[in-house]
């Protein structure tokens, strides 16, 4: 069976209670649950959390929480792969024949059911181990700058100072929405960012990382603008 797993720990530091804080009037995690349900890709939509309140909100919005995540997998240093592997093992112990598994982030209000479906098709059609959402950088990364110890500017790649933007290779980054993967890849701790993965390309206007209050405000502006424009 195909399973969606939504990691949602309770200890968010930069935006407290981020996973269940109201986003445009709805608990943040509810947007991810709704997209997973609307995709019709999954027999079960599971939330992996260490937090009783998050578990309650998840159940109220039609997700399942058959177990609570142990505290040692809910700290600031535990990676997503370990959390998904733990969830798969817990579900297998409960008799579920878990196969293709999609990790959906709880803080992805721009996620769309059609993109989840497209990700599953990519996983199947390419025989890849992972298929995950990506988007392009808005500016050439080869012309990025940093501030040195003296507060002055220097380029990461000074050899590209005179290179035209259109002559530079396009770069992509993780869109932070979903990660389809085969069970063995999750359980073996295989890296998502590797040669056995394929991208599911999203437009930049539907991607926003939400780690700070400034990110949150920007994301709500973007979300409301898209809804006003009739976009899903």
TrEMBL record:
Tell me which CDD domains the record gives: CMP-NeuAc_Synthase
Task: For this UniProt record, give its keywords in alphabetical order, as a comma-separated list.
Answer: Nucleotidyltransferase, Transferase
What Gene3D superfamilies has UniProt attached to this entry? Spore Coat Polysaccharide Biosynthesis Protein SpsA, Chain A
Provide the GO MF annotations for this entry.
nucleotidyltransferase activity
InterPro entries assigned = CMP-NeuNAc_synthase, Cytidylyl_trans, Nucleotide-diphossugar_trans, PseF
Which SUPFAM superfamilies would you find in this protein's record? Nucleotide-diphospho-sugar transferases
Q: Which Pfam families match?
A: CTP_transf_3
* Record flagged with keyword Transferase: yes
Determine if Nucleotidyltransferase is one of this entry's keywords: yes
Please give the name of this protein.
Pseudaminic acid cytidylyltransferase
Organism equals Castellaniella daejeonensis
């Amino acid at each position: 069976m195909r399973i969606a797993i939504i990691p949602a720990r309770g200890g968010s530091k930069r935006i407290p209670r981020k996973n269940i804080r109201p986003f445009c009037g709805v608990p943040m995690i509810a947007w991810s649950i709704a997209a997973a349900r609307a995709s019709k890709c999954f027999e079960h939509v599971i939330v992996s959390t260490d937090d009783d309140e998050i578990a309650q909100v998840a159940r109220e919005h039609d997700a399942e929480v058959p177990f609570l995540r142990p505290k040692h997998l809910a700290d600031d240093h535990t990676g997503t792969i370990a959390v998904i592997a733990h969830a798969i093992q817990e579900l297998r112990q409960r008799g579920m024949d878990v196969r293709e598994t999609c990790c959906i982030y709880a803080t992805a209000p721009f996620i769309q059911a059609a993109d989840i479906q497209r990700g599953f098709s990519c996983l199947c059609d390419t025989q890849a181990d992972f298929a995950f959402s990506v988007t392009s950088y808005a500016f050439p990364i080869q012309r990025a700058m940093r501030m040195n110890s003296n507060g002055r500017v220097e380029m990461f790649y000074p050899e590209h100072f005179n290179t035209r933007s259109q002559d530079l290779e396009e770069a992509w980054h993780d869109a932070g929405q979903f990660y389809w993967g085969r069970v063995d890849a999750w359980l073996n701790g295989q890296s998502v960012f590797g040669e056995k993965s394929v991208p599911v390309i999203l437009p930049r206007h539907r991607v926003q990382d939400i780690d700070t209050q400034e990110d949150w405000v920007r994301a709500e502006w973007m979300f409301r603008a898209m809804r006003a424009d009739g976009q899903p």
